[in-house]
Design goal:
Keywords: Hydrolase. There is one protein chain. It contains 5 helices and 9 strands, in the order ββαβββαββαβαβα. The protein is an alpha/beta fold. It has a single domain, classed as Aminopeptidase, CATH 3.40.630.40. Strands 1-3-2-6-9-7-8 form a 7-stranded mixed sheet, with helices on both faces. Strands 4-5 form a two-stranded antiparallel sheet. Helix 1 crosses helix 5 and helix 3 crosses helix 5. The longest helix is centred in the middle third of the chain and has 23 residues.
């Protein structure tokens, strides 16, 4: 974290432009919090959206899409959950118990990490008045606990507002990709950040889920930043068309 903040921002938003956020981009755990999980688990999808930080960094630095990036692990507090969601401080994830969260001080975690992250994102959006918001995530190709296989290379999630998502689904498919429509899980059930910051304001958004083996290397992350920037730009133009 920088100066104790649970986020960092790369780039300066342009009024009416496109901005991005990444709620699960870090696996950082402060020294005063003991989660009690094996070190190897902190390098897996339960702790971080693998590859996402590299993608959104490139969106910000090379495609003029500024990014609001989480700097705290989702196991400390899940920034992509509402404050009253039981999973906002997860007790387990994909079959792995998080001992340090059992009986942990939830309100302290919310005050220290969750509230500042969303307050800063809220201020950013109010100042920029973006025409499109990107929420970038990644998903594991298979769940360890169930063996469920995820064949999609990318998925677009949405709750009530699917204006941007339907354009992006078509555009990604035109690039020859296997695209999930509200897969690998539904934005009807989990869309907390975009519900809070985009749907509540009527701002179109793309919640983009990339399969983690697609963005494991820097070259792959650069490729996906290019793909997302292209799709986002075309979506923005489509939404502006009468």
């Amino acid at each position: 974290m920088i100066d104790g903040m649970p986020y960092r921002q790369v780039g300066e938003p342009r009024k009416g432009g496109i901005i991005a956020c990444a709620d699960h981009a870090s696996n950082f755990v402060p020294d005063d919090i003991e989660l009690g999980v094996p070190d190897e688990a902190m390098e897996q999808h339960i702790a971080i959206d693998l590859g996402v930080e590299g993608v959104v960094e490139r969106l910000a630095r090379f495609h003029d899409i500024p990014a609001h990036i989480a700097a705290i692990s989702r196991l400390v507090v899940d920034l992509h959950r509402d404050e009253d969601d039981p999973a906002v401080m997860p007790m387990s994830s994909d079959g792995i118990t998080i001992p340090g969260n059992i009986g942990g001080n939830l309100e302290s975690r919310l005050e220290r990490f969750h509230y500042p992250y969303h307050q800063a994102l809220d201020s950013w959006i109010e100042a920029a008045q973006p025409s499109l918001i990107l929420a970038v995530h990644s998903f594991t190709p298979a769940l360890h606990s169930t063996g469920e296989q995820r064949p999609w290379e990318v998925g677009l999630l949405y709750n009530n507002d699917d204006r941007a998502a339907q354009h992006a689904i078509r555009l990604f498919r035109e690039k020859g990709l296997t695209v999930g429509d509200n897969e690998p899980y539904s934005g009807k059930q989990l869309n907390a950040t975009m519900d809070r910051h985009a749907e509540s304001r009527g701002i179109p958004y793309l919640t983009i889920e990339i399969r983690q083996d697609e963005i494991a290397t820097r070259a792959q992350q650069s490729r996906w930043a290019d793909l997302i920037a292209d799709v986002a730009s075309l979506t923005q133009l489509s939404l502006k068309s009468p």
